[in-house]
Amino acid sequence: MIKRLRREEGFGLVELVTTMVILNIAIFALFAMLNAGVLSIGRASRTSTAAVIAEKQQETYRSLLYQDIGLHASLVAAAGDAVHVADAAEWNGGSQVTTASCNGSLDRCKPIRTGVVGPDGRTYRIDTYIRAETPAAGRPTKRVTVTVRRESVPPSGPLAKLTAIYDLSTGCIVGSTTAPC
Which pick of 41, 60, 84, 97 has the fewest CB atoms within 10 Å? Predict the structure, then answer.
């Protein structure tokens, strides 16, 4: 009986099975790592595209006079139910800055824009919030917050959020009585 236990017949098969198990574990770990990398690159692509879209929207406000920075009044009233829950602080109960120079056809005047196609071919939703603020012992300002998210129902969380503060001196026209600083 002892002689039979000391023989090494069949150990090659045990070693082969053990090696295959170890290789399977290594291959699955490598596959999981590559899969996580692909997902991470996809997320980074959507985030960088959303940042470009937010910057482009913000640029439209940088090119305006202070008095023209605002949203279309009836579109703000209609957007109340469509505001994303995460943006309640920016929405501030619907007290957005509206301006008479806005009409409903201009993209800069819309509080919510859907179907915006990014450079990557995906569709995004842009939410714009404009609030009037006056800091203590300061001039009036307008805080413009642009949030970009994937277009989905219900809307997804923000991919990019960009806030800029415009001072009353933004876009002054020297010597003008209609747009003074």
Answer: 41
How big is the chain by its Cα radius of gyration, in Å?
Answer: 29
CB 150 within 8 A of CB 122: yes
Cα torsion angle, 108, 68, 140, 170, sign = positive
Spatial contact of 115 and 123, defined as CB atoms under 8 Å apart: yes
> What is residue 13's predicted lDDT score, i.e. its pLDDT?
82
State pLDDT tens for residues 51-100.
Answer: 999 999 999 998 888 888 888 888 877 776 666 666 666 666 557 788 88
The C-alpha atoms of residue 146 and residue 71 are separated, in whole angstroms, by: 12
CB 112 within 8 A of CB 127: yes
| Gap between the Cα atoms of 89 and 145, Å rounded | 11
Token couple for 161:
């959020």
Mean pLDDT of 23-28: 96
**What global pTM score does this model have?**
0.73
